[in-house]
Amino acid sequence: MKSIKSLVNLILKAVAVAMGVAVAVLSIIGELETKSAILMLAIGLSCAGISQLATNSDESK
Asked: For position 1, what pLDDT does the model report?
């Protein structure tokens, strides 16, 4: 069970990093609208927050 939780945690962190990199790259090449950038960054931030909450929850037990 712990390996599944750690895998989900890793995936959430990877999505957060990928969204940040994607927004940066797409902005540099000029292929990203502001609305889309905000949505992508919100998804990444949500994933990072969920990952952090899950990590803190596991440590407090």
From this structure: 63
3-class DSSP state for residue 36? helix
Q: Are 26 and 37 in contact (CB under 8 A)?
A: yes
Residue 33: partners with Cβ closer than 8 Å, 6 or more residues away = none
Would you say residue 54 has pLDDT above 80? yes
Domain extent listing, the chain: 2-53
| Cβ-contact 16, 45 below 8 angstroms | yes
Angle value at C-alpha 13, between 40 and 9, nearest 5 degrees: 130
pLDDT tens by residue, 4-24: 999 999 999 999 999 999 999
Element containing residue 33 per DSSP (H, E): none
